[in-house]
Design a protein that fits this description.
By secondary structure, the protein is mainly beta. The protein is built from 1 helix and 11 strands, in the order βββββββββαββ. The strands form 2 sheets. Strands 2, 4, 5, 6, 9, 10 and 11 form a 7-stranded mixed β-sheet that branches. A 4-stranded antiparallel β-sheet has the order 1-3-8-7, with no helix packed on it. The termini are far apart.
Length: 122
């Protein structure tokens, strides 16, 4: 069992940066692949970035070159550094964990956090 808690969201101007954190308050991320997702109002949840236990990373095309996912297993934390943010990236950002990569990248992960709001003003 893993419980995930996201933090770091907030209000930022377009072009600005935020770093999101997702920490396991219960359990460990050590053997889990980790992902960041977002859901804007009226839209479906989408995968933003994912990181394998072996540090292989995957990004949505829309964020490549601007977002970076990383993990610190010693701290049971995964990060999402977001640069050059755009107003259309306003959404609730969620992290998730799963021991199966396929489930993670198909939005079927076993463990989800509650989300953190990111608002990008124009």
């Amino acid at each position: 069992q893993v419980q995930l808690v996201e933090s770091g969201g907030g209000l930022v101007q377009a072009g600005g940066s935020l770093r999101l954190s997702c920490t396991a308050s219960k359990g460990s991320i050590f053997s889990k692949h980790m992902g960041w997702y977002r859901q804007a109002p009226g839209k479906q949840r989408e995968l933003v970035a994912a990181i394998h236990t072996g540090d292989l990373t995957h990004y949505a095309d829309s964020v490549k070159g601007r977002f970076t996912i990383s993990r610190d297993n010693a701290k049971d934390t995964v990060y999402l550094q977001m640069n050059s943010l755009k107003p259309e990236e306003t959404a609730v950002y969620y992290c998730a964990a799963d021991p199966a990569w396929v489930r993670l990248i198909t939005l079927s992960a076993a463990y989800w956090g509650q989300g953190t709001q990111v608002t990008v003003s124009s």
